[in-house]
Sequence to fold (256 residues):
Amino acid sequence: MLANKTALVTGSTSGIGLGIAKALARQGANIVLNGFGDVEGPKAEILALGVQVAYHGADMSKPAEIEDMMKFAAERFGRVDILVNNAGIQHVARVEDFPVEKWDAIIAINLTSAFHASRLAIPAMRAANWGRIINVASVHGLVGSAEKSAYVAAKHGVVGLTKVTALENATSGVTCNAICPGWVLTPLVQKQVDAKAVALGVSNEEAKNVLLGEKEPSMQFTSPEELGELAVFFCSPAGNNVRGVAWNMDGGWVAQ
Ligand code: NAD
Fold:
């Protein structure tokens, strides 16, 4: 379905980003990976799906590096058809204790980077009259949780940016939508499981159940593969008139 298209997925060396990149690659899209840590492993996983893969190590908190990445992708593949704004970090503390530099980093990486990548991707998408911008927000783009002020503020911002981007391009073939996962067991959440296990003096398995029990009626983590399939739907012909939605995949978290 996505042969001859190129998808750039930020923060795709791990977790949800890698899951979405693999789902798009399975549909034939060439992939530009981004993120820190091991690069060769994720690259090999994408190559094994029979598409081309490139990597750019832009730090998504740095606008000049984002510009460089978007230029690199256009030079390598001609155009970015699908942009998935996924890179994100978390920090947990009460407002009065929240380290100022963590606030700034979360807003830059989780929110402002999506603005920069989108503004740089939209002109070529509009020229081709086809494009998909998929913002990985969170249930925290829809509801709050204590001790996550920067994250919740950034993710509500991402949902707002999604709506405006969708509206500005509504008469074109460029759509923009957000994905709002509940708990997904990636390194970002494993840190919170570890902290809970220490705080409560319980095992890792028990800590996972406590975390799920607090928020997620299904008592199940959503998987990166399931989120990848939602991204594929947004890119499908049936997603043509899906514009500006914030679609939660959250085991009932936000239904409560
Ligand atoms: P993760 O830690 O597994 O992956 C994060 C990715 O972002 C990694 O590839 C990392 O290298 C990259 N990254 C971090 N800082 C970066 C920077 N400055 N520049 C470039 N890349 C950077 O986390 P994840 O759980 O897969 O999170 C991915 C997205 O999903 C985030 O936006 C997160 O907020 C969102 N999300 C996660 C959950 C969850 O339960 N895990 C739930 C809702 C939303």
